[in-house]
Structure formats: structure tokens, C-alpha cells
Design a protein that fits this description.
Layout lengths: L5 H15 L3 H8 L3 H8 L4 H12 L7 H14 L4 H13 L1
Helix pairs in contact: 5-6
GO molecular function: DNA binding
InterPro entries: DNA_brk_join_enz, Integrase-like_cat_sf
Organism: Victivallis vadensis
């Protein structure tokens, strides 16, 4: 059995905030810690954020905004008569692009 404590929740919160683009000053204020501690122990950027950064630098970042992709996915869901599994795959592809 794995036991999670406050430190685990604090670490996860900090990492999720960092990946979501919360400004570092805001995160430090919420955590009540200094920059060195937050950088070393709390904020770890995940694979998805790293892939987005690489795509942006390489010039291969998606051209559609998040909102545009969501609207396109919702339109597909509302209008498609394909089997649910196929629609789910198409929606997933839209949201990843």
C-alpha cells in the first residue's frame, strides 16, 4: 500500500502548476518557499510540456488554438454517426494536433 502525505500533494500541485504555465512568482507565493527549493524539489516538467516546447522551437507547433481544437472535436462528436470508438480516436487526434 502506498501512503501519500502532504509533501506528495505539494509536489504534485507545484508540478501541475508549472506545466499549466502558472507564473513562477505566483507558484512561489502559494508554496511559501524560495526559488531554489521550488526548482530543485517541486517543479518537474512532464513529457507533454517538453514536446510542446521542442515543437515551438522547431517551428512545428500546431497552428490551431486549444479553443479551436476543442470546438472542432465537439462539432465532430455532435455530427458523427461513426461508432463511438472511431469518434473517440478522431477526437483524440484532433486534440493532439
Amino acid at each position: 500500500m502506498t501512503v501519500y502525505g502532504f509533501h506528495s500533494l505539494r509536489h504534485s500541485f507545484a508540478s501541475h502548476c508549472a506545466e499549466a504555465g502558472v507564473p513562477k512568482a505566483v507558484l512561489l507565493s502559494i508554496l511559501g518557499t524560495d526559488s531554489d527549493i521550488a526548482d530543485k524539489y517541486y517543479t518537474h516538467i512532464g513529457d507533454e510540456a517538453q514536446e510542446k516546447a521542442i515543437a515551438a522551437v522547431a517551428g512545428t507547433a500546431p497552428t490551431a488554438t486549444d479553443r479551436q481544437r476543442i470546438e472542432k472535436a465537439l462539432a465532430l462528436i455532435e455530427s458523427s454517426s461513426a461508432p463511438a470508438e472511431e469518434v473517440l480516436k478522431q477526437v483524440s487526434d484532433i486534440l493532439k494536433s
